[in-house]
Structure formats: structure tokens, C-alpha cells
Structure prediction request, 500 residues.
Amino acid sequence: NDGDTMPILVIGTGYGGAVAALRLAQAGQSVVMVEKGMSWTQPGSDGKVFCNMLNPDGRSFWLRTETVQPINHFMGAPYDKAISNYTGVLDAEQFSGIRIYQGRGVGGGSLVNGGMAVTPKQENFASILPSVDAASMYSTYYPRANAGLKVNNVDQTWWQSADCYQFARVGKKTAEASGFSTTFVPNVYDFNYMKQEQAGTATRSALNAEVIYGNNYGKNSLDKTYLAAASGTGKVTIVPQHNVTAVSPANGGGFSVVMNQIDTSGNTVKTKTVTAQKVFFAAGSVGTSKLLVTQKATGKLPNLPDSVGTGWGNNGNVMVARQNQAWDATGSLQSCIPTLGIDNWADSGGPAFAEISPFPAGIETFASLYLAITKNPNRGTFSYNSGSGGVDLNWQTAWNQPSIDCAKRIFDPINTKQATIYRTDLFGEYKTWGDDFAYHPLGGCVINVSTDNYGRLTPYPGLYVIDGSLIPGLTTVNPFVTITALAERNIENIIANDFK
Ligand code: FAD
Prediction:
């Protein structure tokens, strides 16, 4: 409520925020979490909380009247659909050179993501986070994160014959026949539940084209894991539909936090100001970066370092699809949960880790779709735009050429060997590469650059960053396990030293 005071406020309920809230509560602290998205617990008129990818409605996108699907064309025709304006679960935030997809709601990105729970190879870790002791990450914090997230592995014997993974078997076969190695990746989706979906004994979710607009069943998103545990302590209050707009030092200590309570059309219902002794920024790479550069530029937190807003990267994301030979059907039934990656990171000429993605069109497409994570050296900077009052990101679409070059080192040889071609009808009218959007925003408030080595904003004791903005633009694999493990490491140090 307006005028409230509290010991700890966490902004955002994604991975970083959920870890902070749980561990602080277990250490005896009371925590309030504010989240701009909805609490996704109430079913709509169709009896379901979330809509699927084949029939998107207002629940799909954050405040839009038309979908902006990652695959926005099909066989030459635009594929987007009119929807009602609503605080839907997936945001497609458009900057000048890139569209950044993010989850909105209690659980953040965990509500919309593919659940791929990948721990990077330890030998690559120093290139990601050189200031962080890798040995303790791999002995303590990665295992702690994997346990907290309920990560599990697919039964490979079942996978070999399940209809819903025909697409993945074709992806594996064509990659391996072309000299590339594939690797199974863990996930937070409950594979035992999926077996029941395939067997026809449970309501379908991953097998019903559900993923990027939310899963109604099967997925252990954060609201089922960390946030459920946090609420279970009785010390954590989660307040949805509140969008934080300003943070500044309060007279008499602590911080004033201004937020707008919004309705499901995005309109402000009420503006509230609260005072918190400590504030954790966990609004995600884009959300936290936008808040921090705005507070610095508008004089609310003028002593933040100049580096705030820098070091942003897209995890080298680029998407592409191949058209398989007629004997390599990928299946009309596809699980939306990926299980395999093509690992070509050891190729020093162009490292890439390509997820073999589902393409749940509901019909046979003969297409193999991939999301490649590549080593792209380009980094963007967020800056406050005093004219618009918004925040710009200077990333240019052309900066993704190095990612395309890395990905081509996998898919050109596969096409040559298989005598197949790229699809050009999915990312535009005639466009091969999905190079102008990202699923994995990282950086903007990099650890040991804009914060100390544990996420403290040192000019303002009591302010912390604990989300993907700490990671300098790349994790070499899908990022959320690393975001979670780093948050586990940082909060342990913060609790030990700052809550004596
Ligand atoms: P987030 O999870 O983004 O959480 C931030 C939260 O803060 C959000 O809920 C947001 O609404 C809220 N917020 C933002 N601004 C404010 C504000 N001003 N006031 C209040 N609240 C605010 N990663 C993987 O590892 N594996 C995958 O398979 C995978 N698949 C993906 C698929 C899709 C479609 C997308 C979009 C992402 C995927 N990701 C995947 C990426 C992963 O979801 C993100 O890296 C992760 O969610 C980032 O965690 P975070 O804690 O930094 O922030």
C-alpha cells in the first residue's frame, strides 16, 4: 500500500528475484516482491490459464493488438493474428535493431521459456564470468540451482520411439550424419508427465502447442519451485500488476520506491510510494538496465557508475530452419519442449550451440528449426532518452552477422551433406535468418564492473542487482541455470555480510 515501509523489496519475480526471496526468507527476513505482470492462476473462459501457440488470444502478448510471433510468416504469408489488448504473458519489446522476448507475470521468463536447463561446460565458465570462482560454482551453486529448479532428464529409451520427438530424431540424425555431435539437455518440464501426455492419459500441454504463451500443465516454472517455497515460509508477499518506475534514497534512510498499480489493459489505477531498507533489482536484463539508467540520468541515483547500461548482449541468438528431404518427416505432433543441442562450441572459427527446436504447426512441415547460441563479440548499451522519457538500446541488426557466420558453420555443411536447403518463408517474406530478435537478453549491469563481485551497487549500500543483467552478454548455452546459480552464490554472500 501507498506509504508502507518494509525491510526488503524485490523488483521482479524471475529467477534472480525468486532465489533472493527464498533465501532471505529462510534467513528469517520478511520480503515483499513486486511484479508488473499478472499472477497466472485464474483460468479464462476456456477453462485454461494460458492459450496455446496455434490459437493465440489476449493472454499471449503483453499489451498488443496483434501477435509478434518469432516465426511470423509461413509459406509466404504473414502469420500474425489480431488479439485483444491485455497484460499477456509474453512481451516482445521492440528496440531499434532488435525485438527482445521476455516473460511477464509471477515467475518471469520461467512462464514462457522452453525449460532447457543447461549448465555450461566448466572449461567455458571463465570466459563468461572471469571474476567468479568456478570451482565453487560447480561444486555448490550449480547443483543447488539444479535442485531448486527441479531439473530432470528425458528417458532416452522412451525418447527413441515417442511420436512427439520425431522432429528431434531427424535433427539428431542429420547433424550426426554431417559430422556434428549432439547432446541431450536437461529440462524443468516433468518428463514423466509428458510420457502420460504421449500415452493419452494426461491432459496435453507440451504436446498441445503450449510453451511461449505459457504451459497449463507439466512445467515446473518458478511459481511451482522457488516462489512456492518462498511463499511457504510465510515471510514472502508477492504483489502482481505493480510496475516500478523510480528508486531513490529516502529521507531518514532506506529507499523510496515508486510504482504504478496497473489493470489488465495496462492503465495505471494508482501510483504508490513505499520505503524499503534494502532493494533488489531483479527485473531482468532489460528491466533492471532500463530502471538503472533512468535513475542515473534523472538524478535519482546519480552516483551509479557510468558503466550502468553497458555490456548488453543477446547470447548470440539466431534462428534458422532447414527443409528436410521427403523421407525425413518431422511429425505433425511435436513436443514444445526441446531435448537436444548440436554442440559445435569447440569450433574456434565460430563457436555455436544450436538447440533443435520444435515447430509445432500441427501439420507435417518437413522443417527442422534451430535456435543457435553463438559467440558474438558485439555488445550494446542502454541509454536514457530525455526526449521520449524512455530507454534506447543501440544494438543494430547487422551486429548479428557474426552469429549467422557461426551458425552457418553447422547448417551449411548439414545442407550440403543432406542435399537440403534453408527455409526462407518463416522469418519474413523472403528471409533465411531470424536475426532481429532474441530470447536470451543478458547484461547491462555487469558483475564486478557496475556492481561489486556479488551484485552490490556500492555507491548505495542496500541496493543490489541479482538477475541476468549481471552476466556480460553470453553464457555459451541457455542462460537460466547460470542466472539462478549466480544468484544463489551472491545471495549467500549478501546474507552472511549485510544482514548481521
Ligand atoms: P526474468 O525472468 O525476465 O524476470 C524479470 C521479471 O521482472 C519479469 O517477470 C518482469 O515482468 C518483471 N519486471 C520487469 N520490469 C519490472 C518493473 N519495472 N517493475 C516490476 N516488475 C518488473 N532460458 C533457458 O535457460 N532455457 C530455455 O529453454 C529458455 N527458453 C526461452 C524461451 C523464450 C520464449 C524466452 C522469452 C526466454 C527463454 N529463455 C530460456 C531465457 C530465460 O527465460 C531468461 O534468461 C530468464 O527468464 C531471465 O531471468 P531473470 O531473473 O534475469 O529475469
